[in-house]
Design a protein that fits this description.
This protein is an alpha+beta fold and 92 residues long. It has 3 helices and 3 strands; from the N terminus they run H-E-H-E-E-H. The radius of gyration is 14 Å and the shape is flat.
């Protein structure tokens, strides 16, 4: 899980997740918001629990979508099923 730590808050969140959260496995990380929402719809359609984390990676005050990192975390036991669900179309 190679990622750039931009703020102290992000560092704290990563440390907390590694120590206390049940959602430890990073399933997805991208700067594409639209794709992020599609992946969440797929996980919801397959009833898979997940946690999200959205990080602003820009160093400047002006925020853009290219500087936002969208992450999805799942439980270790759900990882393989979640990978399959994310790559299938949501059936509604």
């Amino acid at each position: 899980m190679s990622q750039r730590i931009g703020t102290v808050d992000h560092l704290f969140t990563l440390a907390y997740r590694k120590l206390f959260s049940r959602y430890k496995i990073q399933l997805y990380a991208s700067h594409n918001e639209e794709d992020f929402h599609k992946k969440i719809l797929n996980l919801n359609a397959h009833y898979i629990d997940y946690k999200t984390h959205i990080v602003d990676t820009s160093k400047q005050k002006s925020s853009s979508t290219a500087n936002t990192l969208y992450e999805i975390y799942v439980k270790k036991k759900d990882h393989s099923l979640a990978e399959l669900a994310m790559n299938t179309a949501a059936h509604r």
